[in-house]
Amino acid sequence: MNYFDIQIAGKIIPHENDYEPEDVGKVVTESGGEYSLTAQTSRSITENGTYDTTLNNEVTVNVSGGGGNDIADFANRVDKEYDLTGVTTIPTYFAYRFPNVKIKALDATAIEEYAFGGGTAGNDASQFSFDWSKITNIGQYAFEKRNLPETIYAPDAFAGTSAFYEARGLKNITLHHFGGQYVFWKCKELETVRATNFASYMITNYDFQYCTSLKDIYLEGLTNSFGPATSAWTGSNAAADGTGVTIHVPANMVDSCKANSNWQAFLALNANNAIIAI
Question: How far does CA 274 lie from the centroid of its chain?
Answer without folding.
Answer: 29
